[in-house]
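Structure in, sequence out. Go:
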């Protein structure tokens, strides 16, 4: 496995060992076999450290992984999973928002509609896609594609990966809240199977606008929450003090229960999709293949249901989320 290109703080000790291992490997490849035993021991040490680090991640470390620049984004999954993909643009009202991408293609032999948030890797890409934070026209483009999926009887697959909808003044002027609310209503009433996959960071209503579905799946190191840990820490402990907010972000992540494992326990999501050891950013192809097998299984199950069964189960799914207790 190649060393991580953009390591997070807790990954740095591993990266240092991986670089030593890569240097030894080059020596052996050049014909110098005198350090073969040392290479074997170092390889074992790297493997153990990788297991120790990724086997004991804290909630906030998973949040950091969910934001990793090298994680696969929606269009990466499209590349590995979808054939004959044709991207569709624009909301037919105002503009095309690059922070949301979508189009038609085939998952195996099954025609599907894909809609997902899209971040960028380079600075230019991140600016173009507004760091994956959609404007109202992005959600209205998604709405148009939801309706196309229903019109042509295609299952809808959404990929969720955003810190949240863009909160700027111009977005509010163009009806950000209404656009999100309309998507929630439309998704709840679609007569085709809908599957959402949280592939990175799922934040607030900006994520939920693509997330009302029959099955909610999450990658192992993704997160899904009403607010970022930093935002929560700023409200509860920061009081205008940025350093205090940063200090409590890890505590907030613990309290918010944002990880796939915690949300599975709460009954919010339906299945956790495993990532390669080292995270999804370490192997896009393997991650995509894990997603493929789970998607195909759930689509096969949902395709057996009548429209009435599909809608009834979707309704009951969301009615059953959350347990309230209290004294009368």
């Amino acid at each position: 496995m190649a060393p991580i290109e953009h390591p997070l703080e807790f990954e740095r000790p591993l990266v240092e060992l991986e670089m030593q291992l890569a240097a030894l490997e080059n020596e052996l490849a050049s014909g110098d076999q005198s350090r073969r035993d040392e290479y074997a021991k170092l390889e074992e040490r790297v493997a153990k450290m990788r297991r120790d680090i990724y086997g004991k991640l804290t909630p906030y470390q998973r949040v950091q992984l969910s934001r990793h620049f090298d994680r696969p984004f929606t269009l990466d999954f499209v590349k590995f999973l979808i054939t004959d993909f044709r991207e569709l643009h624009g909301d037919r009202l105002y503009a095309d928002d690059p922070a949301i991408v979508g189009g038609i293609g085939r998952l195996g032999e099954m025609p599907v509609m894909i809609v997902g948030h899209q971040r960028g890797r380079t600075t230019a890409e991140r600016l173009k896609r507004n760091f994956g934070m959609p404007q109202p026209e992005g959600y209205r483009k998604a709405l148009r594609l939801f309706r196309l999926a229903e019109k042509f009887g295609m299952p809808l697959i959404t990929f969720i990966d955003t810190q949240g909808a863009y909160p700027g003044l111009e977005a509010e002027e163009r009806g950000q809240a209404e656009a999100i609310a309309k998507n929630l209503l439309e998704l709840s009433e679609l007569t085709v199977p809908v599957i959402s996959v949280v592939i990175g960071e799922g934040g607030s209503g900006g994520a939920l606008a693509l997330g009302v579905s029959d099955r909610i799946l999450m990658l192992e190191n993704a997160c899904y929450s009403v607010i970022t840990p930093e935002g929560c820490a700023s409200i509860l402990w920061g009081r205008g003090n940025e350093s205090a907010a940063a200090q409590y972000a890890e505590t907030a992540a613990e309290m918010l229960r944002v990880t796939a494992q915690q949300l599975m326990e709460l009954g919010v999501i339906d299945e956790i999709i495993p990532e390669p050891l080292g995270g999804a950013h370490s192997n896009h192809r393997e991650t995509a293949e894990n997603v493929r097998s789970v998607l195909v299984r759930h689509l096969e199950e949902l395709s057996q249901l009548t429209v009435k069964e599909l809608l009834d189960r979707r309704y009951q799914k969301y009615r059953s989320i959350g347990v309230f207790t209290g004294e009368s």
